[in-house]
From TrEMBL:
GO terms for cellular component: cytoplasm. Residues 36-88 form a coiled coil. Keywords: Coiled coil, Translation regulation, Ubl conjugation. GO terms for molecular function: mRNA regulatory element binding translation repressor activity. InterPro entries: PAIP2-like, PAM2_motif. This is Polyadenylate-binding protein-interacting protein 2. The keyword Acetylation does not apply. Belongs to the PAIP2 family. One of its GO terms (biological process) is negative regulation of translational initiation.
Length: 124
């Protein structure tokens, strides 16, 4: 089939050749649904995707638990080292400074306040 289309200046005409077989075959054949074939397995796809998301969530929880365990272990090691350091410092003190049993100080006495810090206000 020949189609004549007028040009812009109407002096020349453009001729288009259209193949009749191609134009008719588009309407006679079944439509192409190949791009929609993924919908055939939509339920399986959804199931697999949900399973993947659950696995990622479980992996994230495990990762966070692992980090928390490592932090707790580091804190325990730090506390243990601090305790050992304090014990070492206490054991290095002379025994006379640590012996409270032979002390002559009264543990029930009031707090000592030097006289220079007591403020006396004149009576008015």
């Amino acid at each position: 089939m020949l189609l004549k289309v007028p040009s812009v200046d109407w002096t020349d005409q453009i001729i288009y050749v259209v193949d009749d077989d191609e134009s008719l075959s588009d309407f006679d054949d079944e439509p192409d649904f190949s791009e929609y074939m993924w919908m055939e397995n939509e339920e399986e796809f959804d199931k697999n995707e949900l399973q993947r998301l659950e696995e990622e969530e479980i992996m994230q929880e495990c990762f966070e638990a692992m980090i928390e365990d490592e932090l707790e272990e580091q804190i325990n090691e730090w506390e243990k080292a601090k305790t050992e350091e304090q014990n070492t410092a206490l054991s290095a003190l002379p025994k006379s400074q640590c012996n409270v049993e032979k002390s002559v100080l009264n543990p029930m006495a009031d707090e000592f306040i030097p006289r220079s810090h007591i403020m006396e206000f004149p009576a008015s």
